[in-house]
Amino acid sequence: MVFTPGDANSPYEQASIIAEGGSSSMVVQSSGSFSLTINPVDRDAYVVTGKMFFEDNKWFSIEYSDSPGDWETYGATLTSTTFTMNGGPNSAEYDFDNNGTSEITSVYMVMVRI
Predict the structure, then answer these.
(1) pTM
(2) pLDDT (tens digit per residue) in 50-99
(3) What DSSP letter does each residue of 22-82 carry, written as one string?
């Protein structure tokens, strides 16, 4: 899971959660409801929840619990064991400097079923 600053002039470097010693896990229900736990090495874990679905049966989309009625579309692939999601520019938020304010980022994640 990698977060990359959305602003080219950002003073922050990308945050690679797993490579930096952190972890993440996701539980997805058959309804599409999910809970994603992100546990960076340098701060408390936090949880993102929502629902995954295909908009118009072709665009992979997520409606986050904290923004009901609004959803984002992402590039995604799924095999029997691996889910890959590329949010593209300005597709997520991450608090790079751990000051309580999230900055706009791009997100890329690869999740492997265990």
Answers:
(1) 0.85
(2) 999 988 878 889 999 999 998 888 889 889 999 999 988 888 889 999 99
(3) -EEEEEE-TTSEEEEEEE-TTS--EEEEEEEEEETTTEEEEEETTSTT--EE-EEEE-SSE
